[in-house]
Amino acid sequence: MNYSDIETILGKEAVDLLTYQSNTIDKKYLHLPSPHFFEQIFIPSGRSTQVLKSLSAIGNHGRLAHTGYLSILPVDQGIEHTAGASFAPNPLYFDPENIMKLAIEGGCNAVVVTLGTLSIVARKYAHKIPCIVKINHNELLTYPTKYDQTLFGSVEEAWDLGATAVGATIYFGSEQASRQIKEVAEAFERAHELGMATVLWCYTRNSNFKTQQEDYHCAADITGQANHLGVTIQADIIKQKLPNSNQGFAALKFGKTHPNMYSKLTSAHPIDMCRYQVANCYMGRIGLISSGGASEGDGDLTEAVKTAVINKRAGGMGLISGRKAFQRPMQEGIALLHAIQDVYLESKIDIA
Fold this sequence. Notes:
The protein has helices spanning about 5-10, 15-20, 35-40, 50-60, 75-80, 85, 95-105, 115-125, 155-160, 175-195, 220-230, 250, 260-265, 270-280, 300-315, 325, 330-345, and strands at about 70-75, 110-115, 130-135, 135, 150, 165-170, 195-205, 235-240, 285-290, 320. By secondary structure, it is of the alpha/beta class. It has one domain (about 5-345): TIM Barrel. The protein has an eight-stranded parallel beta barrel with strand order 1-2-3-6-7-8-9-10, surrounded by seven helices. It has a two-stranded antiparallel ribbon with strand order 4-5. Strand 9 (about 285-290), helix 15 and strand 10 (about 320) form a beta-alpha-beta unit. Its EC number is 4.1.2.13. InterPro entries: Aldolase_TIM (IPR013785), DeoC/FbaB/LacD_aldolase (IPR002915), DeoC/FbaB_aldolase (IPR050456), FbaB-like (IPR041720).
């Protein structure tokens, strides 16, 4: 897929998204993805040689190898959204082997799986593609539904199975956030001791973040702060949803703000709001990968390409897209993953 194809897919939004030039945080201050990104960022850091090796294994795999950008397939939704709801559109993915096949054929840098998924296919696939084991989950079988991330396994188990990295979610803003921060910080410390990389889902969760007027769970200011907490506990890669609003702190009347947050550091443009998220990841020293979101059907390709363009032009590191890929026939899922990757391979699409 070339630049013209991307323009066609974006339709009426193409000009705005592809030619927009940001006047907020100057791009010269950002640490942008490049072929030597992990070496440049982490050699001066406290990460060990083994962690650098694990990060390089992820960065140097798949169609985006040696670009600094990442395309990751996450399939942990069998727990997070129930297996039936996740795999009913394509029951092939009840079988963990097909998850691995999709990630490999789709040219991904890595695949995110549950402990059980990797354990059942580890000896066949752990050496073929970098595996990120999600060690905590929000299970949906408790009634009434509660929203809490619980450890499902240990870092040591993931390491024994040949995982390259561990992933975890923290629901920042939730009643359980303090416990989750402590658990994940300890898990990430252990992962680094073993030479594994760490990926953090920096999601926000609090019923008070949603008002009658607006849902601020994806507000740029609130998600930006979640990212900043995530890099503080030494996540090597941050996963975050694209922001769709701003001024959550001001509207909800909590936290601390500064007028420049909304007048100079961000604007209403999606690229600027995403750049604010990047800035909170140590100005891009810790890569930001954006969530691909739920599958909505025929519009999935457009939304996936749009998200990739926004992430790349904001200064992000890539896209992590699952349901849009695995909730359709495998060849269509592969084509969608390739389309996402083509955005990052297209040199005409540059930092805004």
